Amino acid sequence: MKKIINTPNAPAPIGPYNQAVLAGNMLYISGQIPIDPKTGNLIEGDIKEETKQSMENLKAILEEAGMTFENVIKSSIFIKDMNQFAQINEVYATYFDAETAPARETVEVANLPKFVNVEISMIAML
């Protein structure tokens, strides 16, 4: 059985999907982009701030599901410019302990929703 997870502390979905789905002990979190959930505005111009907002949105969803970043087992990062990888990675790394960090892939893409520079999705486990 699946349980839908949504929180007002992360941006509302911009399409026919939910912020996350809990299936058994697995949490599948939809890709989060740098939208400030309080204002609905995009964070733009600084890739570190964009990455931080995306991670904070993920954090809010994890918390709604009763989890933390310690529960994350897989991350997927989609970026428009691989030249920004080091800056994105710098911010991303502050959310994890290097020794217990999840598996991850980082993929450069041609475009992302709302033409943002970064989108991050995660899978977590209770």
UniProtKB/TrEMBL annotation:
Native source organism of the sequence: Cellulophaga baltica
Protein family membership: Belongs to the RutC family.
Descriptive protein name: 2-iminobutanoate/2-iminopropanoate deaminase
Listed GO CC annotations: cytosol
Pfam families: Ribonuc_L-PSP
Gene3D superfamilies xref list: RutC-like
GO molecular function per UniProt: deaminase activity
